[in-house]
Amino acid sequence: MEFTNVVYALLAGLLPTLLWLWFWLREDHLHPEPRTVLAMSFIVGSLSVVAAVVLEKFAQDIILDRTYQYIAWASIEEIIKFIAVAIVALRSRYLDEPIDAMIYCITVALGFAALENALFILTPLNTGDLARTIVTGNLRFIGATLVHVVSSASVGFAIGLTFYRGAFTKVVAAILGIILAIALHASFNLAIISATVTSTIRVFGWVWCAVIVLIILFEEVKGVRPKAA
Which of 135, 125, 147, 133 is nearest to 208 (CA)? Predict the structure, then answer.
């Protein structure tokens, strides 16, 4: 494994996700989060890939059915990303408005996607398969990366929607958000594994529809206000 290939893979994983991060941060342009906290969220999201890889390997060894493997992998990744958000942001004094929960969940998800994409790109890059490297990078950019964003944002939306509610309501909302995130992520995984070219395009179309819904959800969360006394 050449060092230059590792650098190229990291850049190929990092730069597109930073572009997506810039796009989503514009949703919170009126009260932007501190760059240091956002950077920490992104880094912790990236590092959590290591834990995910270890747990996914364990799940692969004990779960023989491929369908259940993909569901288990989706569950592991979504739970780990939520733990990363909980560690960095959920108790932060900077999480002071409903939309912040979505911002931090998306930032962690993009950090996770950055390193995961780099690992996927590194394999064809090491074999000198440039065409496959480019195709893999592009597909990750328009597909898998957005699945991470939409899935994690579902958790952030659930937390943001109950931002001014009691602790019990917030916990229930977070759990429901994680379940939805796992369902979305697993559905994408299962749809892709045996997809033809036509059906893959259809799946990616649904992902982009989910992105449009996500933009609408941002507007919904922006309207969340404390209950009148």
Answer: 147
